[in-house]
């Protein structure tokens, strides 16, 4: 049998052999076309083919709808077993706060994947047995702790026999302490009994607290013993965990396949950038013994996974942020490359302090490089071990923090305005050396001017951000085959934004990016009166006419959209949509004023603590200044990012982002497995 090639097997360039991106810009903006790979292979070749596919990391198995043979039951069964052991190990890693990142440091050799699965499970059971022994001890201790803790609130719930013995012992003590001549006095006996019960409960509570403390120490000892054992055997655990993950990937390929007595049928997705190399390697392996066919997926009939080739770490981080909202559709433009620029750009104006930014970068670097001092800071917030999540968090902190260093210098702020006024701030050395005032400073003498400048700056950022979003929206609609929507629905809305913000943006740029505040205010007002409308003169400018025409044009697009979605359109529905669209233009632009608000709040928090501290004296000032900076880094650093994400997800993505896709998840080897 022959391999049916993708058009033809072109000779791969050296860059393609190395897996490098020859059209990185296009690849970062648009998903790869996805190919469906179908293979009919002799049973003897299947294990080697699966080894190759997992080694290449270019193939994602797909469900087979073709009527061919029967499911590979042993693979389905073994996959469930392997997944169960992976879940158990990950549960132990989570409980014992272990950061396990498997690395391909050794090669395993097996006759077939079934043997690999059996070996992986066997090795996993050995490790699990050690963890289980410690876990059983901890469970026993926790059971005792639960029973003892009941005594703190309800000491009378002691077991009946034990309670009787305790009462008898306490009674003997009481009778011994009460004089004989008073032992028959009922009043005395009643008072003594009540006091005895009170003393007994207090005694039991104190005893319970002591026992709880001892049990807690015992639990901690067992916990540390388990951690010590795991750290001593970390390499073995890494390799076994990696072997399980590799076997899982291989079994997922086989579990979705079908078999007959002599052949196995596999089906899956391969991105266009990887199809030539994959087919070439399969041809070398299978030769004339197998039958392989590939074709471009028809996206009108099925939605394949989305694969975006990304080389830059910043773009990868932006893509992961984007996926929080939803994975991109394979037809649409992927905004990760643009977000890698806009995400830190917007953030740095919300968080303009280069001292605070350096702290973010430092801790981000610590999380990415798995430094325990960085993890210790995040432990109170529930981050107990290094995972892919901490790596992602660290990369975000480095990305946005690096950008904030720039605006920190422009604002002349180093851990707030207090030190910004002194001679220990390197940013101020620069500005004083130049004989200039930092252009983004919020110092009291320039506060009013900076706020006004920030208002126009925020609107300008929103103006261009939203325009980029609409341009992407036009591209997406064309790629989805909806040119009518691109022309009549998205384009007029983009024109409305262009017109609405033009006077303010023009005034900002004409005044030298706000360097002359009076000129900026004058020009913005002048352009608005001439281009939009002048209330005093009662005149309407050309841009206002264009805005109204664009609004009516958008109304026609809304009519087409309503007919397309619901099969009908009415005047009331159209009127409500038009009014909402008019409000959206204003609200979307105004929403970017949060950039100014957060920058002002960032400066104001430290300044407010400074004023309070000065009222309390030098010691109070130092204490509050220290606490203020910690609060600002933690609170404002997080709040600024949340609002940055909101501007992207709500204001920006709603203009173009389709999502409703799923990312390409290839079967790949974590540790090296060779089938002999």
Automatic annotation (TrEMBL):
This is A-type ATP synthase subunit I. PANTHER family: V-TYPE PROTON ATPASE SUBUNIT A (PTHR11629:SF63), VACUOLAR PROTON ATPASES (PTHR11629). The lineage of its organism: Archaea, Thermoproteota, Thermoprotei, Desulfurococcales, Desulfurococcaceae. The chain crosses the membrane at residues 357-378, 399-420, 454-475, 487-511, 531-553, 592-613, 619-642. The keyword Transport applies. One of its GO terms (biological process) is vacuolar acidification. It is found in: Membrane. GO terms for cellular component: proton-transporting V-type ATPase, V0 domain; vacuolar proton-transporting V-type ATPase complex. GO terms for molecular function: ATPase binding; proton-transporting ATPase activity, rotational mechanism. The keyword Transferase does not apply. Belongs to the V-ATPase 116 kDa subunit family. It is a multi-pass membrane protein. Component of the A-type ATP synthase that produces ATP from ADP in the presence of a proton gradient across the membrane. Residues 205-232 form a coiled coil. Its main location: membrane. InterPro entries: V-ATPase_116kDa_su. Keywords: Coiled coil, Ion transport, Membrane, Transmembrane, Transmembrane helix, Transport.
